[in-house]
Specification:
By secondary structure, the chain is an alpha+beta fold. It has helices at 9-26, 28-47, 93-96, and strands at 5-7, 53-54, 62-67, 70-76, 81-88. It has a single domain, classed as YaeB-like fold (2-Layer Sandwich). Strand 4 (70-76) and strand 5 (81-88) form a beta hairpin.
């Protein structure tokens, strides 16, 4: 079965940065947990695009969904959700999106 989500290059870069930071400061067990949590969240959003909340305050069509200490930002496309970015909750989305 094809995935119902796609990661933009910016989201891939966010995951790599989260991975580097987590591995350095929290270890491989936490890294594996984060990566699993993100995969589950992406699949949930792919199956239920309206699970997150609209974020028209940032840009028309944007949505977000909390995932632990991070927030996944995405767009709902016709056949899939497009993951735009994964930001730490302490980050100001308007500065990074």
């Amino acid at each position: 079965m094809a995935s119902k989500y796609k990661l933009r290059q910016t989201a891939r870069a966010d995951l790599k940065e989260i991975g580097r930071y987590t591995l350095k400061y929290h270890g491989k067990i936490q890294l594996d947990k984060y990566l699993n949590d993100f995969k589950e969240r992406f699949e949930l959003l792919g199956d239920n695009p309206c699970f997150g909340r609209p974020r028209d305050d940032i840009k028309a069509g944007y949505h977000s969904s909390d995932c632990g200490v991070h927030v996944v930002f995405y767009l709902i496309q016709k056949e899939y959700v497009e993951i735009l970015a994964i930001l730490h909750k302490s980050m100001i989305p308007e500065r990074h999106l």
